[in-house]
Amino acid sequence: MDLHDDAAGAKEHACAEIASCESLEDLDSIRIRYLGRKGALTLLLRKLGQVDPEARKSAGKLLNEARDAIASLLESRKQELRERKYASDLSAGSIDVTLPGRIFSIGKLNPVLRVMDEILQIFVGMGFTPVEGPEIETEYNNFDALNFPPGHPSRDEHDSFYVDGGFCLRTHTSPAQIRVMKSQPPPVRVVVPGLCHRRDTPDASHLMSFYQIEGLYVDYDVSLAHLKGTLAAFAREVFGEETRVRFRPHYFPFTEPSAELDISCLVCGGKGCRLCKRTGWLEVLGAGMVHPNVFRQVGYDERKVTGFAFGMGVERLTMLKHGIGDIRLLYENDSRFLKQF
Ligand code: PHE
After folding, report:
1. How many angstroms is it from 144 CA to the middle of ligand 1?
2. Is there a domain that residue 311 lies in?
3. Percentage of residues in the chain with pLDDT exceeding 90?
4. Does some domain include residue 324?
5. What is the pLDDT of residue 262?
6. 156 and 9 in a common domain
7. Are residue 255 and residue 214 in the same domain, yes or no?
């Protein structure tokens, strides 16, 4: 037996077969016949063990060379046959290169989150720093420290979600005021975006979970005029230069005085229409001067510091800005609706 001759013969045969092979299927069967587990070259390699040690080295080298040569010829022939098949499919018309490609739609942020970013940017531009607080809050931060009396209706089981151990799902972002003031001395200038939860039955203007943005500014000489100027500038940026604002007296336990901010109606400009229920005004947020009891709770000297706070519903602002009539549309995930923004 002469492995040298066998190797040379196998290589020669394989090369001839590969060169004249005309299909990818045939090419694969050639590969199996020579290089497969029971292929000619594989069997020859297995016989190496029986060869005299002196002859083994040169026979092994030859066999390896033959195997590598066959493998690389197989590969280049495969490329040729593939290209040929592609070209003939193309000219036979079985690949229609004029067919439009499949269009994948690219997702984007929900309009509520985009309006939230826009609002935060406006306040960042005025020197406020965004911070966050937890969604599961202590009842103390959510109510007591904010001067809610023990029997206040929003503490009712019917209005808030409670978690064992003195916790609740925050019903507003105001408890972040307590956290921020307890963690640092004045001055404080923060905005707090976040999800809030109330036990409301969903309707056109209510959801059980919704976003708010809280604002808090505390220093040694903050006045109601600063509050109004800040919110007027904010309203003009979001709703347009011509927007007018007014304060309407209101009540919140943690601010005194308290007010709601109205903007001139976006549809009628103030003349009175269906959107503003003929009043000419739209309510956008709650605000007021921080109550001295709140300063006392966080250890600030209520005789020295003053501050203002405000809180707004981001879905409501999104609806006003984009003329959306039902809050539920924002979260139904109907792409026909969401695509518009
Ligand atoms: N937390 C109030 C609410 O949820 C809004 C508010 C915040 C009012 C800050 C005054 C000051 O209705």
Report:
1. 15
2. yes
3. 78
4. yes
5. 97
6. no
7. yes
Examine the domain organization and report whether 68 and 180 are in the same domain: no
Among the residue ranges 51-60, 65-74, 238-247, 277-286, the one predicted with the least confidence is 51-60
Which residues form the domain of 30?
A: 3-92
321 and 188 part of one domain: yes
CA-177 nearest atom, ligand 1: 9
In this structure, of 151-155, 160-164, 324-328, the range with the lowest mean pLDDT score is 151-155
CA-proximal residue: ligand 1, atom 12 (nearest) = 286
**pLDDT(302) > 90:** yes
The DSSP element (H or E) to which 85 belongs, if any, is helix 53-92
CA of 48 to the centre of ligand 1 (A): 88
User: Which numbered atom of ligand 1 lies nearest the CA of 286?
Assistant: 8
How far are the Cα atoms of 47, 264, 273, 303, 330 from residue 267, in angstroms, in the given order? 92, 9, 7, 44, 21
Q: What is the pLDDT of residue 264?
A: 96
Which of helix, strand or coil describes residue 139?
Answer: helix
Nearest to 127 by CA among 186, 259, 215, 240: 215
Same domain, 203 and 68: no
* Across 65-69, 111-115, 261-265, least confident range: 65-69
Kindly compute the dihedral angle of the four CA atoms of residues 104, 107, 111, 116, in this order, to the nearest 10 degrees. Answer: -160
pLDDT at 60 over 80: yes
- Checking if the pLDDT of 53 tops 70, the result is yes
Strands 245-252 and 162-163: unpaired
Q: Are residues 265 and 211 in the same domain?
A: yes
Q: What's the pLDDT score for residue 1?
A: 52
Q: Is 128 helix (H, G, I), strand (E, B) or coil?
A: coil
CA 74 to ligand 1 center in whole angstroms? 76
Q: Parallel, antiparallel, or unpaired for β 306-313 and 209-219?
A: antiparallel
Q: Residue 289 Cα, ligand 1 centroid: separation in angstroms?
A: 11
Instruction: Out of 174, 230, 251, give the residue to mutate to test ligand 1, the one with the largest number of ligand atoms within 8 Å of its CB.
Output: 174
